[in-house]
Specification:
about 450 residues, alpha/beta, two-stranded antiparallel ribbon, 22 helices, about 60% helix, binds zinc ion
Length: about 450
């Protein structure tokens, strides 16, 4: 399965020249693995996943009380965990789940592997995978614009990682334990515990029709064995067949609709949702119309959703993205702010999007506001390389070259480009105000990079 192909990558280098950004495009050929993965980020998907797993993580003994979720854009069903409390989920697994109970069942099983500290057979490779800077795409407009328009997004996508060798293979004993512990957690947390079994049935149904579940089947034991483990677990918890929470189910169907529209073509979406009416179908149509270039139709559909469901933050977010795409930056900012107020929960991605729109608006007030917003985004998630890129751009536009160089140093360091990170940090340190947070951090970065380089040299000799 592992074969290398040569792929063309657009590699962008952004440099400073007379306080302006100049983007140099290099077309280079990198050898990447065919199984390299594309990660996507989306606030609706992330917030929903965190919400449904919360009752289970409350019962767990997790470091920092958190799980990091990574969503892989893939038409194959799969889910796995890696070292450091990270759960990877393929988008198709969510799309194929009939209700959120199936999705939650799978999450519970993966969480049980983490809780049980199950040792996998390929741990070293996993650590390596998670330490690499993975290419991340955004679900939505910023995502599909991709490398065509903005250097930062391309930089975010440069680099690739393969999960082929990184799949975890647990022993059968550990798999059985994870299934049993999943049921126990779901019951104790008063969640629908039948979802995991129902998910396995979906897999079995898929088998005869396609190879969609190949990945999942190669990383998990036979479903027939798992049915037995699950049924034995039910005996211990006879009273726990909880029903679906209809509010959550509504949110789930929306997440599914948007994901499906992002990963499947328009014909597939129309056939998937043809007999379905109401909110989810409309959302799927609005999204698929946008992704296939029919903006006006998409705007009308999303506006009618907003009319009927004015408090759903994600409809406003989506409309804001379309406005941005059309160059209507003022309305994009307005919609994004509405979305963020309605969600009343800060997310680095939402702040990053707002930062993008504010920079595009390009008035001196909006540039200053973007600096605040982007610093907040990075406070919530300092590994958001695109926010670092935008922050550098905003500082440069605000004529603060030293801070722009500092932000670039952070970004290149995160992307694993130590020489360039060092170059930017050394330039920055000359002019940053002494004693500021950025000054300390730039010094730390220089020391950190020189330290790593020294260690590498020693290892080589
Ligand atoms: Zn497992």
């Amino acid at each position: 399965m592992v074969e290398s192909i040569a792929n063309n990558f657009l590699l962008y280098l952004t440099m400073f020249y007379k306080n302006k950004f100049i983007t140099i495009l290099l077309l280079c050929t990198l050898s990447i693995n065919v199984n390299s993965i594309e990660l996507i980020r989306d606030v609706e998907l992330e917030e929903f996943t965190k919400e449904i797993i919360l009752p289970l993580t409350r019962l767990s003994n997790l470091e920092d009380n958190r799980i990091d979720f990574y969503f892989i854009k893939s038409k194959e069903i799969n889910a796995f965990v890696t070292a450091g409390q990270k759960i990877f989920i393929n988008t198709e697994l969510i799309i194929q789940s009939e209700t959120y109970a199936e999705y939650l069942g799978v999450l519970a099983h993966e969480l049980a592997h983490i809780n049980g500290s199950h040792v996998s057979r390929t741990k070293s490779q996993i650590t390596e995978l998670t330490e690499k800077s993975l290419p991340i795409y955004l679900l939505g407009i910023l995502g599909i614009l991709g490398g065509q328009t903005d250097a930062g997004i391309a930089t975010m996508m440069v680099g690739s990682a393969s999960v082929q060798d990184a799949y975890l293979y647990y022993s059968r004993t550990q798999e059985a334990a994870a299934d049993q512990s999943a049921i126990s957690m779901l019951c104790k947390a008063q969640q629908p515990a039948w979802g995991l079994e129902s998910f396995l049935k979906i897999l079995d149904r898929e088998t005869s029709q396609s190879a969609k579940n190949y990945q999942y089947k190669t990383t998990h034991p036979l479903t027939s064995d798992r049915y037995n483990w699950l049924r034995n677990s039910y005996k211990k918890y006879p009273d726990c067949q909880k029903n679906l929470d209809l509010k959550l189910e509504r949110k789930f169907q929306n997440v599914k609709a948007k994901l499906a529209a992002y990963t499947h073509n328009q014909d597939e979406i129309y056939s998937l949702y043809k007999n379905k009416e109401g909110e989810f179908a409309q959302y799927a149509f609005a999204a698929t119309n946008f992704f296939s270039g029919n903006q006006e139709k998409s705007i009308n559909q999303i506006k009618s959703l907003i009319k009927n469901y004015p408090t759903n933050p994600y409809y406003h977010e989506f409309l804001g993205e379309i406005y941005y795409f059309q160059g209507d930056h003022a309305n994009a900012i307005k919609k994004q702010k509405t979305a963020m107020n309605l969600l009343s929960k800060e997310n680095d991605l939402h702040l990053m999007m707002l930062g993008t729109y504010l920079i595009a608006e390009s008035s001196s007030e909006s540039i200053i506001e973007s600096i605040k917003v982007l610093n907040k985004s990075l406070f919530l998630n300092k590994s958001n390389t695109y926010s670092w890129y935008l922050l550098a751009k905003a500082y440069a536009l605000n004529n603060n070259l030293a801070l722009a160089q500092y932000a670039s140093a952070e970004r290149y360091y995160l992307n694993g480009d130590r020489p360039l990170a060092l170059e930017f940090a050394k330039k920055a340190i000359k002019n940053i105000d002494k004693g500021t947070v950025e000054w300390y951090r730039t010094n730390d970065l220089i020391e950190l990079i020189l330290g790593i380089d020294e260690k590498d040299n020693k290892n080589r000799s």
